[in-house]
Design brief:
about 110 residues, mainly beta, Immunoglobulin-like, eight-stranded mixed sheet, 1 helix
């Protein structure tokens, strides 16, 4: 599997968000992820302890396994107390398939 690097985006504290992923190999061909072990984590510079972790059945949903599609669901509690730049990484069957930076901006309303 090839890692999709620089998967960066910005959101606000406490926002509910769905991060969509399509897993592909080095040639850009979609990989069937049906039944795959998938973990997503958010941290400061990918250091343990992770601030947020998700796995299949707990925030990660395989939307269409044959099409390589998985979603990560973020809820208010995941980012409500966070502000700044954070690194995120998606691992499928022990291999990193996506990583990038999430910028979480302060919310003046929430």
């Amino acid at each position: 599997m090839a890692a999709a690097l620089n998967q960066d985006f910005t959101m606000f504290q406490g926002d509910v968000a769905t991060i969509e992923f399509t897993v592909k190999d080095e040639a850009g061909v979609v990989i069937n992820i049906t039944g795959a072990d998938i973990t997503w984590a958010l941290s400061r510079k990918l250091k343990v302890p992770f601030l947020v972790t998700k796995s299949v059945g707990s925030g990660v949903t395989i939307v269409n396994g044959p099409a390589g599609r998985a979603d990560v669901a973020l809820v208010l509690a995941d980012t409500n107390a966070l502000e700044g730049d954070f690194e995120h990484e998606l691992v499928v069957n022990g291999q990193t398939v996506s990583s990038g930076v999430i910028t979480i901006k302060a919310s003046t309303i929430k």
